[in-house]
Specification:
This protein is mainly α. 65% of the residues lie in helices and 0% in strands. The chain has one domain. Helix 1 runs antiparallel to helix 2 and helix 1 packs across helix 4.
C-alpha cells in the first residue's frame, strides 16, 4: 500500500483500498463519491495540520472524517473505480469546490460525512474492520509526523 502525506489524507486510498436535502441514492455515481471525498479532504486537511503540530485534541474529529472518507472510497473501489479515472474525478471535484460558496461547501461536507458514516454502519464486519483500521493507522501516522514504521 502507498504511504501518503497528510495533504493527501483521503485521496490516497483511491489507489488501493444521505441525508435531508440530499436524498440517499442506493447507487451513487463515481462523481458523487469523488465530490464527497474532495469535500471531506478539504475539511480534514486543517485538522491534520493541527495534529501534526501536536494538537491531539483534533484526533477524534479527524478519525471520524477519515473513516467517512475511507468508507466512501471503499464503495467506489468495490464498484470498479480505479486509477487514473479516480484521480481525474477527484481533481475535477476539488477544482469545482474551489468556486463553491463557503456555506454550500460546509453543507456538502456535512452531508458527505453523514453519508460516509452510514456507509460504514451498513458495511459488514470485515469491511468495517478494514476501514477503521486503515483510518486509525492514517491518523496515527499523521500524529507521529508521518513517520513510517
Amino acid at each position: 500500500m502507498r504511504h501518503c502525506r497528510a495533504s493527501q489524507l483521503l485521496a490516497c486510498l483511491w489507489a488501493g483500498v444521505a441525508t435531508a436535502a440530499w436524498p440517499a441514492d442506493p447507487n451513487p455515481s463515481h462523481e458523487h463519491r469523488a465530490a464527497c471525498v474532495a469535500a471531506l479532504t478539504t475539511q480534514a486537511e486543517p485538522l491534520a495540520a493541527r495534529l501534526k503540530g501536536g494538537d491531539h485534541s483534533v484526533e477524534p474529529e479527524l478519525l471520524k472524517l477519515t473513516q467517512s472518507g475511507f468508507a466512501i472510497i471503499g464503495t467506489a473501489y468495490q464498484d470498479g473505480l480505479r486509477k487514473p479515472e479516480a484521480d481525474q474525478l477527484l481533481d475535477a471535484a476539488k477544482q469545482a469546490q474551489k468556486s463553491m460558496p463557503a456555506s454550500e461547501l460546509l453543507q456538502l461536507q456535512a452531508r458527505c460525512r453523514t453519508e460516509g458514516a452510514q456507509v460504514l454502519a451498513d458495511a459488514n464486519a470485515l469491511e468495517r474492520f478494514l476501514v477503521t483500521g486503515a483510518a486509525e493507522r492514517r491518523v496515527k501516522r499523521i500524529a507521529e509526523g508521518g513517520k513510517r514504521r
